[in-house]
Every structure is written in structure tokens, then in C-alpha cells.
Design goal:
Order of helices and strands of chain A: HHEHEEHEHEHEEEHEHEHHHHH
Strand order of the largest sheet of chain B: 6-7-8-3-9-10
Radius of gyration of chain A: 31 Å
Order of helices and strands of chain B: EEEHEEHEHHHEHEHEEH
Largest sheet of chain B: 6 strands, mixed
Number of helices of chain B: 8
Strand content of chain B: 25-35%
Oligomer: heterodimer
CATH class of chain B: Alpha Beta
Shape of chain B: globular
Number of helices of chain A: 13
Structural class of chain B: alpha/beta
């Protein structure tokens, strides 16, 4: 009864000093806003990564990528020597591969009349639908005949369709890739933006033979995806694939691989690294700003103990125990910081949602960030309140009244 | 009610300089008395009041309040005693700013053990004639009104003892008389009142005058014909 009376009284007193209270709120508001932003955007990016990885990378997947060294990204210049024949040799010599597809891609201008678009043009086989897990949502994917005959047919992404055809029906339409005429036979299932912000729908898929002979004059491939019957055997198969490729590329013992083999184990490790950054290091940075905010609030409160000396003296004179005074200051600091934290959650959420919409990452789910924000600001609030509370409680009533 | 036996208070002003504010003070004040403690500034009268009011502890001697030895009471018990048994009135009123008269009066109730506090503060304000100023803030009240709010606050827990430190020091003559009149009425109602002042005229409204000089009691006299403030105020 007495405690709740004291609490209510403290809150009412705080509302009388709006400027001081708002300044103290500001510190935690900024910190919690940063925390909320980082966590909610991190969650979105994480969801995106998991979906993207799920699209291309199941447990029964092995990807053979041209070029050694770096796992993903980065330049893979000359010396890339992976060919379709390499992949065929792997399939023949390593048992357990149930399906495969090789892929090569180039960035080219795609035109229809005056409309143009620079898109990623990918050469794949008719098995691509199954192996890469991406079908035509409208129209058809090309078949084996198209691949053997290097047919000039294309399955285009939603973005390309929109750029070139607008409201017209793209199926059966004619386009030019580079300077070569193609016929559109289907629209790719939409995938949205990848975690790097690349538009996965700004893509054109053509038969790989057509790409190599008519568009890019290439005989190398960028990568191949193998599906295996037993995911448990993937690591052993990786060793065998490595042996086959090293033999075919005539690499001597000291030379490094000129290809990279990715299994589910490696991909999971990479995803784990990304998650550590998203859910540990980034929130840590935000937490530092929160702690700074807490220190600012604590010092403001310490100063206010001096300003409120007379008030403390009066309270002691009318019967407040040292603990009552301490409790009041602790409560004031904690509620102020929690209040700022709630504002920060709202602010961070709005910023995250705006950013996510611009980056086409989908909508933010604020609950985890909100929970983290409430917990973090309560903890920081209580900690920031300890020192002012002790200082206020230890004040001698006679000195306070002087 | 108040029994001080050989009370001394020594402060440490700096590392090797001790200041004695009170030296061997013995004083008995009975229930229902109206005592004025007079003395020049620095005579130790405020220190004496702080000790009587349990805001401070003596360095030597014994203090019994209401028959109980309170010389070595811990801070929490001191607070409880102050809350229940003692009301304070200060020269500078010491009201909380930005806080209504009623909320100021209710302050001691917040720290009391009472289950419900509603209505009590309003009654105390009625007793000092401020029913129409309940929602006013101190800055909206005159000095005399502020001091009456402070008296209502001091009385709200119905303490036996009222301690007033220069209560008229910041007031004009008329307001001062009004405040003293309230003290006299309270005293007639049976409350013990200890008033600290440097002003002999104010002390003349009490029944007994204790004079302090450099930390010692030098005189302790009854006031033979104490004046009545109420009539003079009108």
C-alpha cells in the first residue's frame, strides 16, 4: 500500500519536471531506437538469407564453383577452367549424384523496341527447373530439344517483363538479347531481392548452349549444382569430386584448387557467421550507444540530486526513510529511461519499416526487437538509477535542509 | 515529554578543528507546554531543535522522547518517529514547488503506515483556514498562506510535538501574528510546541522562554503574562 502510494507520488512528481524528464528520455530513446532498428532489420535480412539459401541450397546439394580461394563473391578472373565436360565427368565417376545442372551467366542489355533493360542473362539446361528449384510461373520452361538445338528462347523474370512489356503479355513476345533475337516462352517464379540488394527477378534464363554459342562465345561455366541421393555422403563426395577435378585440370600437389566445392555443412557455417554478425555484433554496437545514453541519464540524475537537496530534506523531515528517498530516485530514473525506451522502440520500428520497404525486404516484425528494447531499457534504467539513488539516500537531513 | 540530559553536539569543521554547537544542555519540556528557545545566530538553537526533532543525533548525553531513549536511534526509526510524533515548520516554508497545497500537506501521509490517506489532507487545510486554496501551488500563495500550508503539513499526522524554526522570520507582522495565533490555538488544544526564534517579541507569545548562548542554556524563565496573538491580529 505504502509502496504503491510512494510510486504513484514519484511518477506525479516527474510529470512536473517535463524538461528534465524529456532530456533524460532522449538518451535512452536514441539507444533503444538503434537497437530496435538493428534487430528488426537483422531479422528481415536473416529471413531473406534463409529463404534464398533454401531456394538454391538444400541438404542434398553440392555446388561446384569455378575459381578457388574466396567462398563467394569477389572477382574470379582468368584461370577459371570449369567446363560442362568436367561436370559430366564428375557425374560419371562419383556415385550418388541424382541430378545436375551447369550454369553460366553474363550481364547484357535486353531490348524490345525502344524499351531496354540490363539484366543478368543465365544459361541453364532444361533440368534447371528441378535442380535450381525455380520454375516458370506462367508460360513454359524450355525443354531438352531447345538445349540441344541452341534454340533462341527465353524465360524472363518479372522485372524484365515489366521493363520491356509493361502491361502487354510477354508470352510469345520477341526480344533482343545483345543483338540476338529471342522469343519469350515463360515468366520466372518471382524471388524478390537477395540479401545484397540484387533484384533476383531482373534475370533472363536461356538454354546454356545458346548462351555459349550465340551470346557470349564461351565454353566455360560459372558453376554447377549437383543433387545427391544421400546428404550424409556429401562430405565424402566432396573429396572425390575434388580428386576428379584436380586430375582433369592437371593440378600438381603444391597447386591450390582452381574451383570451390560447397556442401551444406559449409553453407550452414557461412549462414552462422552472418547470423553472428546480425544478432551479436550489430546489437552490441547498438547496446554501446544505449549504455552511453544510460550514463548520460545517470549523470543528469546525479546533478538533479544536488538541485533537489531541499526537497530531499523536506521529505526526510516529514518521515521519509533513506530507503524511501533512494527508491524514489531509482524509480524516477528507471521509468524515465524505460519511457524513453518505449519511444525508441516506436521510432526504431518506423525507421526500420521505412528502410525495409525501400530495400524491398518485406515488412518488419517488431516483437522481438520490442522485447529486447523493454528488457534492455529496464536493465539500463535500474543500473543508471543506482548511483543517484544511493547519493540521495545517504544525504544527511540537516545538511539537505540547510 | 522531552528530556535532554547533558547533551553536547560537536562538529568537525575541518580535519583538526572541532566546533561545539551545544555544550552540556539539560532541558525538560512537559506535555502541553509552549516553549520558545531564543538566542542569537550561532547560539546553537537550530542544532538543539534538530536534535529534539530527531534530524540529528547528539555526540554526548541522553535524549528521551515520550519516555523512550532515542539517543541512538537508527535512521529508519528516526524517520518513523518524525513521521508519527513530530511536525516541522520552517522559516523558508519548505514547500515542494510545482506541487499543490493539498499534495504538499499529504506528503507526510505518503510515508506513514496508514492504509488510506484520502480526506485527511483536506481536513488539515480546513483547520488552517485554506479550504479555498487546495489546488494552488506555493508560487500562487502569499507568504502567510504558504506558512499555513506548512503548518497543515506538520499537523496532518496528528503529532504530539510541533517544532517551529523561526516560523515568522519571512512574514510580515500581520501574517506572523496569524501564524502565532494558530500555534496558540493548537497549544490550548493540548499540543506541545517548541518554537525557535531570535526575536524576543515572538517569544513573548509562548509560556516559557529558554535562552541559549554559545551552546549553553543561560536562562529558563516562565513568561508571566504571555500575549495573545489572535486579538492583536484582529
Amino acid at each position: 500500500m505504502k509502496a504503491s502510494r510512494l510510486a504513484k507520488h514519484s511518477l506525479r512528481m516527474m510529470s512536473r519536471y517535463k524538461l528534465r524528464t524529456s532530456f533524460m528520455m532522449l538518451g535512452s530513446l536514441i539507444g533503444i531506437a538503434a537497437l530496435t532498428f538493428v534487430i528488426s532489420v537483422g531479422q528481415l535480412a536473416q529471413r531473406k538469407i534463409v529463404t534464398m539459401v533454401g531456394h538454391v541450397f538444400g541438404d542434398s546439394t553440392i555446388i561446384v564453383h569455378t575459381g578457388g580461394g574466396a567462398m563467394m563473391g569477389g572477382p574470379r578472373g582468368a584461370g577459371t577452367r570449369l567446363t560442362v565436360d568436367d561436370v559430366k565427368a564428375i557425374v560419371k565417376q562419383v556415385p550418388g549424384v541424382t541430378d545436375w545442372d551447369a550454369r553460366q551467366g553474363v550481364s547484357l542489355t535486353v531490348r524490345r523496341g525502344d524499351a531496354r533493360d540490363t539484366a543478368q542473362v543465365q544459361g541453364e539446361s532444361e533440368r534447371s527447373e528441378r535442380v535450381w528449384n525455380r520454375t516458370a510461373s506462367r508460360g513454359d520452361f524450355f525443354d531438352e530439344t531447345a538445349v540441344t538445338g541452341s534454340a533462341r528462347v527465353a524465360v524472363i523474370g518479372e522485372t524484365v517483363a515489366e521493363q520491356l512489356f509493361g502491361h502487354d503479355d510477354p508470352i510469345g513476345g520477341d526480344i533482343q538479347i545483345g543483338s540476338v533475337p529471342f522469343r519469350v516462352i515463360g515468366i520466372l517464379e518471382p524471388w524478390g531481392t537477395d540479401p545484397h540488394g540484387m533484384d533476383e527477378d531482373n534475370v533472363v534464363v536461356v538454354p546454356i548452349s545458346t548462351l555459349m554459342r550465340r551470346l557470349a562465345n564461351l565454353d566455360k561455366i560459372e558453376m554447377a549444382k549437383l543433387l545427391v541421393s544421400d546428404p550424409g555422403q556429401a562430405e565424402q563426395m566432396k573429396v572425390q569430386i575434388q580428386k576428379v577435378l584436380r586430375e582433369r585440370h592437371a593440378l600438381s600437389a603444391g597447386q591450390p584448387d582452381d574451383f570451390t566445392i560447397l556442401t551444406a555443412t559449409e553453407v550452414h557455417r557461412m549462414v552462422g557467421q552472418v547470423q553472428r554478425v546480425m544478432f551479436f555484433y550489430l546489437p552490441l554496437v547498438a547496446a554501446v550507444s544505449l549504455v552511453v545514453g544510460g550514463i548520460v541519464s545517470a549523470s543528469l540524475m546525479l546533478v538533479s540530486v544536488n538541485d533537489r537537496m531541499a526537497e530531499i530534506g523536506i521529505r526526510r523531515a516529514v518521515g521519509a526513510r533513506p530507503g524511501d528517498i533512494g527508491l524514489q530516485f531509482l524509480l524516477e530514473t528507471a521509468t524515465t529511461i524505460l519511457g524513453g525506451g518505449l519511444g525508441g522502440i516506436a521510432f526504431g520500428y518506423v525507421v526500420a519499416q521505412t528502410g525495409a520497404m525501400q530495400m524491398r525486404l518485406g515488412s518488419v516484425n517488431p516483437w522481438m526487437a520490442a522485447a529486447a528494447g523493454v528488457i534492455a531499457s529496464s536493465v539500463v534504467g535500474l543500473m543508471a538509477g543506482v548511483l543517484p539513488a544511493l547519493r540521495a539516500a545517504r544525504l544527511h537531513p540537516v545538511e539537505a535542509l540547510r | 515529554m522531552i528530556e535532554l540530559e547533558g547533551v553536547s553536539k560537536t562538529y568537525e569543521r575541518s580535519a583538526n578543528e572541532m566546533v561545539s554547537a551545544l555544550i552540556d544542555v539539560s532541558l525538560h519540556i512537559g506535555r502541553g507546554e509552549f516553549v520558545a528557545i531564543v538566542g542569537a545566530s550561532g547560539s546553537g538553537k537550530s542544532t538543539l531543535m534538530n536534535i529534539i526533532g530527531l534530524l540529528d543525533l547528539p555526540t554526548e548525553g541522553r535524549y528521551c522522547l515520550d519516555g523512550q531513549d532515542v539517543t541512538r536511534l537508527g535512521a529508519n526509526h528516526q524517520a518513523q518517529w518524525r513521521n508519527k510524533k513530530i511536525g516541522f515548520v520552517f522559516q523558508a516554508f519548505h514547500l515542494l514547488p510545482r506541487t499543490s497545497a493539498l499534495e504538499n500537506v499529504e506528503l507526510p501521509l505518503i510515508y506513514s503506515d496508514r492504509k488510506s490517506i484520502s480526506g485527511i489532507g483536506r481536513k488539515a487545510l480546513e483547520a488552517v483556514g485554506l479550504t479555498d486554496r487546495i489546488k494552488h501551488r506555493p508560487s500562487e500563495l502569499s507568504g502567510g498562506q504558504q506558512q499555513r500550508v506548512a503548518i497543515a503539513r506538520a499537523l496532518v499526522n496528528e503529532p504530539d510535538l510541533l517544532l517551529a524554526d523561526e516560523p515568522t522570520g519571512n512574514l510580515d507582522r500581520r501574517s506572523a501574528l496569524e501564524v502565532i495565533a494558530i500555534f496558540q490555538t493548537l497549544n490550548r488544544g493540548g499540543r506541545t510546541i517548541v518554537l525557535v526564534t531570535h526575536d524576543h517579541e515572538v517569544a513573548n507569545y509562548s509560556n516559557r522562554m529558554v535562552t541559549l548562548e554559545r551552546g549553553r542554556i543561560v536562562a529558563d524563565d516562565n513568561v508571566p503574562e504571555s500575549r495573545t496573538a489572535l486579538m492583536e491580529a484582529q
